[in-house]
Amino acid sequence: MTIWTASDLFEGEDSPGMASVRQVNQRFLGQIEVQVRYFHWDEYDIAIREAVSSLSLPDIFVAPKGHHFQSFLPQSLLYPVNEIVSERWISQFDDSEFAVRFNIVDGKLYAWPGIGPELGVVLYVNKTVLQEAGMDSERVPGTWEELVQISETIRQGSDGTKYGLLIGGGEPGQVRQMLQGIVAGIEPAVASGFDYRSGAYAFEGAAWKQALRIVAELSERSVLHPSSYTISEDEARSLFMMNHSAFLLADARMAWKLELEGGAATTGIGPMPTSDGSKPVFAYSPAYSTNDYMVSAMTRHPQQVGLVIEELFSQELYYESLLRHGAALTPFQALNDRTELYPSDMFTELAEFHNHLLRRRPEPAIVNAELVQLFKHISSLDEPSFIQPGIAHVLQKLFNRTENDVDFTLRSLNEKLNEQLGVYVTRLRNQGEDISMEDLRFPYWNPHEDYADAEYENRRKGIKNH
User: Fold this and answer.
1) Is the pLDDT score of 361 beyond 70?
2) Residue 455: predicted pLDDT
3) Domain that includes residue 60, residue range
4) Quick check: helix, strand or coil at residue 404?
5) Are residues 130 and 273 in the same domain?
6) Cα distance between residue 239 and residue 44, in whole Å
7) Number of domains in the chain
């Protein structure tokens, strides 16, 4: 049986995913062989589209970026997982974080999380570069201005051969993630681009414009490595580990790769800088993950697939392996609390960032389960399928300045998003679906606090949360 994924947790034989697969293959030796095909994300989206067109989806596959299991339901492409796994396996997941509210439609479970809550972007520190510049290697800049000052010292001391900051700006998704991280330090409620307080998109607001001004200033003051506009995140990581820069803005899940690969640099980690030195706050929903796995309706061996799911995606194997590798947190808080499994100080710090900087946002599907009909058509509010080119591509053009009119571009993007969202909601209402734009509004949401279960009931009653 086959698994397709673009998650780097399955990249390479030393990855936590492949280490777990080897154990599963040994367990089912002579009966079942699990074969994993790993793709980079840009290749993966194309491969999945082609597999859908040719009706040749693999047995198990991860959702493409910007898509969730709802995207595959209208075409009857998914096999109900609850029909091939035990209740014991399903019950290992905490209902409040997983299946009951988010991944079950009409009583059928269609997806499960490959990892736990994701922080997004963090600041990696090259202690070697700082030491060579005669600076405090444990110093993590808390503000953008502090980062600029450190960068200028490094540039001057290296005769211009080393820079302050690297990012993988050649990938639209990385640009968007970086900008979301900056916005999270300005106005966290709009960092995804959709403001759940107003129930509308907010790209034309002050926070997104300020984030782009910060990036422009980093470029103007020669903080950004010149390659940052064209290289991938992997290429940025390589340059960073070869001591080309003091800092790297990248995915929080890159930490395990830095420690696995080693190199000429000694590294550390810190949260995203902000303008005033406060800590950024990141909103998340357990309903949406970049690592949700699904079973294809085209599988010819559903019962065997069920056996592999129970064996591979168990707390004792794959999920514990995530912690032991320092790769990611899991969906299970009790497992995440086992700090003796943490392999390094960097991962311990990263886990602390997750605990202190992540806040659960409102989930409209809890207010009205009928919204699943909307998400079947648009995929998600954060990355709707009805806008082309996608949000990330538009933001990348602003980042690399192939599009210079920031105000016009953000306003145009915002208007298109809000208009099309309204069109889809109206169309579904006319088809008899009991949904409205009001279902998307949470006017009393405080992004600095978890949106708790009781607050959904308060919202229904019109009570402001305190």
Assistant:
1) yes
2) 87
3) 2-115+289-331
4) coil
5) yes
6) 25
7) 2
| pLDDT confidence of residue 389 | 84
Query: In this structure, what CATH number is given to the domain that contains residue 142?
Result: 3.40.190.10
The verdict on 248 and 303 lying in the same domain is no
pLDDT at 99: 42
The CA distance from 355 to 94, in Å, is 17
Q: Is residue 255 part of a domain?
A: yes
Question: What's the confidence (pLDDT) of residue 288?
Answer: 67
Cα angle vertex 326, ends 184, 448, to 5°?
A: 25
The answer on 271 and 152 residing in a single domain is: yes
Residue 362, in any domain of the structure? no
Pairwise CA distance, residues 392 & 410, whole Å: 12
C-alpha 423/C-alpha 309 separation (Å) is: 39
Domain-embedded: residue 61: yes
User: pLDDT grade, residue 290 (50/70/90)?
Assistant: low
Q: What tokens does 402 get?
A: 């192939």
Other C-beta atoms closer than 10 Å to the C-beta of 340 total 6
Query: With contact defined as beta carbons under 8 Å apart, do 269 and 349 qualify?
Result: yes
In a domain, residue 139? The reply is yes
Strand order in the sheet with 35-38: 35-38, 2-5, 60-62, 292-295, 112-113
**pLDDT tens digits along 296-332:** 999 999 999 999 999 999 999 999 999 999 999 998 8
Beta bridge partners of 249: 123
Confidence at 466, pLDDT banded by 50, 70, 90? very low
Over residues 215-230, mean pLDDT: 95
Whether 111 and 239 share a structural domain = no
Q: What is the mean pLDDT of residues 396-407?
A: 92
- Strand segments (E) across 107-179: 108-109, 112-113, 121-126, 163-166
Same domain, 145 and 83: no
Give CA–CA dist 357/281, Å, rounded.
5
Co-location of 169 and 44 in the same domain: no
* Residue 370 binned pLDDT confidence (cut-offs 50, 70, 90): confident
State pTM to two decimals.
0.91
User: Both 182 and 250 in a single domain?
Assistant: yes
Name the H helices within 313-434.
320-324, 333-336, 345-357, 364-367, 372-378, 391-399, 406-430
